[in-house]
Structures are given as C-alpha cells and as structure tokens.
Design a protein that fits this description.
single chain, alpha+beta, 17 helices, six-stranded antiparallel beta sheet, Glutamine Phosphoribosylpyrophosphate, subunit 1, domain 1, Rossmann fold, eight-stranded antiparallel beta sheet, 24% strand, 24 strands
C-alpha cells in the first residue's frame, strides 16, 4: 500500500468550526496490545528525521531514515515542502521497499520530515503511517512522533465530543487538533498551548511550508539530536543518522525545548515547567544503535560497561563467553574483557533473512529458531558456556535457543543479562508485553526463571550496577519497567485500557 500525493495551495479546513473544549485532567493511559509475542523481544519504537535548507531534502531524509530503520519496520514516510507546495509519500514496509529513485522526483523541496514506524498506539495500517499531514487555513502541518501520549484517549474523546474529525487511530493526531484553535496566532503560541495539554513521551519533528519544528517532552524520555549539514539543519532520533549523511552533531534537543527553524534561522523556546529527567534506560540497554550517542552516552561503550559490571557481580566457572547475536554482543565483549576469558560466537546469525519466507512443514518445526541463529556444534560440544543477553522479556526465545545449544552438545549453560528483570509494562513508547506476559513478573526469582529457560544459572545486572555503569545519576532515568515506579501518574491501570483498532 502506498500514498503518494501533492497538495494544492488552498487546503480544506482541519476540523469543523466548533471550538475545542478546554483542557481536562489527564485520563488513564492506554496501550495497544500488539505484536511482539512471536519473537519474545521488546519491539522498537519509531524513528524520526527532519532536514531544513537542502535542495535534496527528500533524498537526505531517505538516508536518515535508512540509518534509523532499527527503530521501526512497519511503515515509512517522507513529506517535503518547497516553500509553496507540500508533497508526501508513505507506504507499508521498509525504507528500501518504500522509496525508489523515481520517488524523489515527486518529492522536490528543501524541507522534509520523515518517519519509520512500529506502532505502540493505533493499528498497523497505511492510514496510521507517519508523518501525519493536515491542512488548515492556508498552511500545512506534517508531524512525525516517537513516543506515546498516555492521555491521548481522554483528549481524543473530548475533541470528538466537540466536533473534531480524526483521520487515524494514532495518538499523534491529537496534537494537531489541540493546535488547531491557535493556528491563526503565532506558531510558538499554538505549539505551547497544545503540548502543555499532552502527557507522556514525545520527541517530535514537524513541517510547515517554510519551517521545521522539533519538540521534546519535559522529561526527555526519548532521544532527539540536532545537527548541521552544508549550512542547513537536521534533526534525528539518533546520531547514527548524522554519520551516514555526513552531518555534524551539534547537541541534543533539550527536554522541554521547542526549536523552530525557518529563513530567520534557529530559535529556541522552553515554555514548560522544569521536570525531573526520565530518560528511557532501555535506549542504552537495547534500542539505540551502538554507534549512536544517546543521553550523552556512546551506546557501544555503555553496553561494554554493562558487561564489565556483570562480570564483577557474577562469575561462574565457564570455558568461554558468547552472545546471542546481535543483541548481547557488546555487553559480552565487556564481560569477557573484565574476566579475561575467551569471547566466542557460539551461534551464527543469518543476515539475509527477509521479513517473510516460505513456512516450514511440521517436520521442520525448529526452522523458525534456526533460520536466524544456528549453533556451532564443534565449538559447543562438552563446553561450559556463559551467554550474555541484553534483556529477557517473555523468555520463550531464550528458552528455544538454549534448547538448541544443549542439543548441540553444550555441557553447562549459564546466562547473565545486562539489565535488571523486566517486571512492568511501558506506557511511554516501548511495546513491552502486558504484565501477565513478562516472565520476570510471573516467576518469583532468578532460579525459577533459569529453570523455565533451561539454564544452569541466571544472573540479572543489579539496578545499582546498571546505573553505575552509565556514570549518570539514577534520578536521570525512567526505570519503571524494572521498579514499577512510573514518573507520570495514572500508569497503574494502563493494562486495563486499549485504543481499539478502527477500520
């Protein structure tokens, strides 16, 4: 499915002319109970990218999104502006499947915003693909969002009661409806008034005909970076996108900051009350690419330090250390380095797997596991091995892989995990399971989880050890998935509410 459009200068109104109701107290958050049950891994969130002042803005955005593909694989989209006309191209699938050489000829302009999506709110359909584009008066507004707005269901219901007509089931669409009553005034005023009503995690890039806007929530849940490219500006979820296009990293967009870039240059406002930081620790543990800089940390080196700390906390007698590629690679390197024992690749990853393949027959029931990772039998036979993993969510994937290691001749299998047990779901943009599906929430201790997975022993990195490895204060992070202490209210009932999928 694809959407490929060019818009005339005179748009239709965003909503009926009825006024939007005044703000109300936040409601309970909601989460879509979607899809990672097949893999047992936490799902990526979304990746966002923006460029200002480049004659090949769409092409630059394409490569920026390509570098951010790990953050979402369901859909991809780019919207451009040449200062007069706004054009878009969106489709389900990967960036490389969505855009082709002929696509860029249909996306002229020196401004662009782009998005790769994994849905945490709203169903996986083209109508929910981002960036989301609306027109109001004589202006266009395109928005790409990484995060999750926990009071969006309440806001949506209130807006619909007052006459707003929604085009999707995305929580992101709420933002433009909140801005609508203030579009005729200064842009800064519309942004401030809209985002002051929103609760949750939001790193956002927006496009108008002549400007690029970047917004980060006051707690800074999700990363967002600012860079320079050939005299213009770029904004991205991660700095690895800057490396690919040859841009210079300038700084992070600050928590609670709104940046507006237009022909007058870059201006910054910080209109929100200062809040305690709540950086998502899982960006450092799992989500961010290891070559990115996130929350002031080089992700690769941070993950190695997690491994060093694991080795200080737990050191069973083993012959070598191995990861399940690629997730545990960097912590495993740190663990082996700290203990001075061999690092081996006991399982080999197939890097050429498409998103779909011919389904195996019943006699090939192990195909789903072996197609991605295959044990090296000669290395494993008779050996005591220690596996380093970055996280365990449902435990089923680890269980299947450990089973194959034993079938390949491993004598003992121990495991260390470079984060604490994940016991609580996340309402801020990571699609963790509901609490009922999290193995650490169901099993009372490490020994019970080790037995379920089929391990000789299991050790999770302590919360204190993980924070020490970052070199940052504990109160800088959101640790709710481990502790259950959510930095925003009303999250205790998030499993009870779901945004229903709409056709």
């Amino acid at each position: 499915m694809k959407s490929d459009s060019s818009f005339p200068r005179k748009p239709m109104p965003l909503t009926p002319s009825r006024p939007i109701c005044p703000p109300s107290p936040p409601a309970f958050p909601h989460r879509r109970n979607s899809g990672h049950a097949e893999t047992g891994r936490p799902r990526e969130e979304c990746g966002i990218f923006a460029v200002y002042g480049n004659s090949e803005a769409a092409r630059v955005a394409y490569f920026g999104l390509f570098a951010l593909q790990h953050r979402g694989q369901e859909s991809a989209g780019i919207i451009t502006s040449d200062g007069d006309n706004v054009r878009e191209h969106k489709a389900m699938g990967l960036v490389s499947e969505t855009f082709h050489e002929e696509t860029f000829a249909k996306l002229p302009g020196h401004l662009a915003v782009g998005h790769v999506r994994y849905s945490t709110t709203g169903s996986s359909t083209l109508s929910n693909a981002q960036p989301f584009l609306v027109h109001h008066g004589d202006e266009y507004y395109a928005l790409a969002h990484n995060g999750n707005i926990i009071n969006s269901l309440m806001l949506r219901n209130r807006l619909e009661d007052c006459g707003s007509i929604f085009q999707s089931t995305m929580d992101s669409e709420v933002i433009v409806h909140l801005m609508a009553p203030y579009f005729r005034g200064p842009l800064e005023d519309a942004l401030t008034r809209a985002f002051s009503q929103v609760e949750g995690a939001f790193s956002i890039v927006m496009l108008t005909r002549n400007s690029i806007i970047a917004v980060r929530d006051p707690r800074g849940f999700r990363p967002l970076a600012l860079g320079r490219l050939n005299g213009g500006w770029v904004v991205a979820s991660e700095t690895c996108a800057f490396d690919l296009i040859g841009a210079e990293y300038i700084r992070d967009v600050k928590p609670g900051e709104i940046i507006i870039i237009d022909d007058k240059g870059l201006r910054s406002i910080t209109p929100f009350a200062k809040a305690t930081p709540a950086h998502c620790i899982f960006e450092l543990v799992y989500f961010a690419r290891p070559d990115s800089r996130v929350f002031g940390q080089n992700v690769y080196l941070c993950r190695k330090r997690f491994g060093h700390q694991l080795a200080k906390e737990y050191a069973p007698d083993v012959d070598f250390v191995m990861p399940f590629p690629d997730s545990g690679n960097y912590a495993a390197l740190g663990y082996a380095e700290e203990r001075g024992i061999p690092f081996e690749m006991g399982m080999i990853r197939n890097h050429y797997i498409g998103r779909t393949f011919i389904q195996p027959t019943q006699p090939m029931r192990d195909f789903g596991v072996r197609v991605k990772l295959n044990p090296v039998k000669e290395l494993l036979t008779g050996k005591r091995v220690l596996i380093v993993e970055d996280s365990i969510i449902r435990g089923t994937t680890s269980r299947n892989r450990v089973k194959h290691l034993r079938e390949s001749g491993a004598k003992e299998i121990h495991m260390v995990v470079s984060c604490p047990p994940t016991r609580h779901p996340c309402p801020y943009g990571i699609d963790f399971s509901s609490k009922g599906e999290l193995v650490a929430a169901q099993k009372e201790d490490e020994q019970a989880i080790a037995k379920f997975i089929g391990l000789n022993s299991l050790h999770y990195l302590t919360l204190e050890g993980m924070i020490a490895a970052t070199g940052m204060p504990m109160d800088n992070f959101c640790l709710a998935c481990y502790s259950g202490n959510y930095p925003l209210p009303n999250t205790e009932n998030m499993d009870k509410l779901r945004l229903e999928k709409k056709a």
